[in-house]
């Protein structure tokens, strides 16, 4: 393998954003690219639940949908708002798949991420804002 080919393989590996968790959400593996992006090493990530990476302003609706979908043994796609080790926003386009054993029991979740475009992030924020505003409007009108 030439030096250039080796560099390309190394660069591709660092860009892969893959995380494996156990059924309770405890991180069991994180790719180098994911670790670099969030600012934690893999050992530090393995000490915590994936929920610790969630941004406090991440709406509950998409997360509830994620877990309901995974509970049906189906894959889920959507935008996730996390935060890095230094507290910065980190939007990721996620594809999460439950992995089951031969008996049908979920043994882990595999999450593959990619960095979304700024336009995709803006659209997601607009939808989240509209959903939040609609919820508050219903609450203020007595639920009508």
From TrEMBL:
It comes from Marinobacter persicus. InterPro entries: PAS (IPR000014), PAS-like_dom_sf (IPR035965), PAS_fold_3 (IPR013655). This is PAS domain S-box-containing protein. PROSITE patterns: PAS (PS50112). It comes from the Bacteria. Gene3D superfamilies: PAS domain. Residues 18-57 form the PAS domain. SMART domains: PAS. Signal peptide: none annotated. NCBIfam families: sensory_box. CDD domains: PAS.
